[in-house]
Each structure stands twice: as C-alpha cells, then as structure tokens.
Write a structure and sequence with these properties.
Pfam families: BPD_transp_1. By secondary structure, the chain is an all-alpha fold. The chain is built from ten helices and no strands.
C-alpha cells in the first residue's frame, strides 16, 4: 500500500476530540513537557544527593550511592516503567487504591515521573561526582580555613561550583529526557508520540502525524538547548571554564 502524504489531514477534526488533529497532537506535547520538567527536577534533587555521597569518606554511604547508580542505570528504562506501573502497586496497597480510584492519566503520569526521575538521577549523580572531583583540592581546604564545617563547605562552596561545571553534560541529560518521555506511551500516557500514533491508526496518515510530531520534538529540543546554553553562559566560571 502506497504511503499517503496528505498533510491537510492535520486540519481535519480529530475522531477522538472536537479539536483538529494538529491541535490534538500538540496537546500531547503538554504532557511531554510537563513530564520532562518534573522528572528532571526530581533527577537533579536526587542526583545531587547521591552524587555528593559518592565523594564522602564514609564507606557505607559510598556503597549505597554506588548501588543506587548501578541499579537504575543498568536496567532498561522500559522495564523500569513496567515495574513501577504493574509490580510496585501490588506491594503498596494504598498506592494501588489511589491508582484505581483516580483518573488513570494521573497514575500514568506519576508513574512515568517517578520512573524517569530515578533513572535520570543515576546519570546526573555521576555528573555531580565528576564535577566535585574536578574541583581543586585547595578549595574545600580554604573553606575549612575560613571556619566552615565540612557540611557548610559542601553546601556553600563545593556543590555550587560543581553544578556550574557540569551544566554542559546536564544539557545532554535534559535532551535525552525529552526523548525518553516517549516510553511513557507504553503505560498509556497520552504524550506526544502516543497522540501521533493515535492519529495514524485512526486516519492512516502516519506520515503527516509523525512529521508534525517530529517538528514539535525539534522545537522542544531547541528550546531546552537554548535555555541550557543561556544557563551555561551565565554560570561559566572565569578562569576555570570558558563561556561559549
């Protein structure tokens, strides 16, 4: 069967809503962006904590943080999202009840948020550890000489500087997360890829649907890259990392 390249189908009224197909697919981009931003925020929070623990002298904490990284980094993302959606609720009765009683879309979103946040946190943690390791050893010592405790040295000197150093690799992680959100379609979240697929299945206009979805993904990726580039430029450390 020959492919139909009729792009005008995007302006036709969706069979699944009262909106045209282009707007229906664009609505899925809202879920994609929301999932990416919330999961990235969770990944940053956990990644900073776990990555910092890897640099401490406390061996049990180092082993715990290394186990966290290896666990979430080495299991395929699609397997993790299935575990969080189908397996974990069986061990947490109140969570399972919440999933049953509420709109499925929120349990799908929350599952994807937790899964992708934890998955990405393992990667961010490695970036944080690398950033802390790259800081000159004299800097923490100088903080101690000024009367700061080790905790204060980490909070006010080491971690802020490390985060400024790792902005470029964090940009890559943010870009990867935009693409990884498409995995959420496997548990039914109506994000961008799923809605494009729904248009294709209902109209057989797969070319138009996925072309429009591709354009939206490119716009989102460019927006993320531009914003992170701005952050990288503002956070560049004079004499240590050159700004672009």
């Amino acid at each position: 069967m020959a492919l139909n390249f009729n792009l005008s189908s995007l302006t036709e009224t969706s069979l699944l809503s009262d909106d045209p197909w282009w707007l229906y697919i664009l609505g899925g981009a809202g879920w994609t962006i929301g999932l990416m931003l919330s999961a990235f925020a969770l990944a940053l929070l956990l990644g900073i904590i776990v990555g910092t623990l890897r640099t401490l002298d406390n061996k049990p904490l180092r082993i715990l943080s290394e186990g966290w990284i290896e666990l979430f980094r080495n299991i395929p993302l699609i397997v993790q999202i299935f575990i969080w959606f189908f397996v974990v609720p069986e061990f947490i009765p109140w969570y399972k009840e919440w999933m049953i009683e509420n709109d499925p879309i929120w349990s799908q979103f929350f599952t994807a948020f937790i899964c992708m946040g934890l998955f990405t946190s393992s990667r961010v943690a490695e970036q944080v550890r690398s950033g802390i390791s790259s800081i000159p050893k004299g800097l923490p010592n100088a903080a101690r000489a000024l009367g700061m405790t080790r905790l204060q040295g980490y909070l006010y000197v080491v971690i802020p500087m490390a985060m400024r150093i790792i902005v470029p690799p964090l940009t890559s992680e943010a870009m990867n997360l935009v693409k990884n959100t498409a995995v959420a379609l496997t548990i039914g979240l109506p994000e961008l890829t799923m809605r494009a697929n729904e248009m294709g299945e209902n109209t057989f206009q797969f070319f138009a649907a996925y072309l429009w979805a591709t354009i939206i993904y490119i716009v989102i990726a460019l927006a993320v890259n531009t914003f992170m580039g701005f952050v990288e430029k503002r956070c560049a450390i004079p004499g240590f990392i050159a700004s672009k």
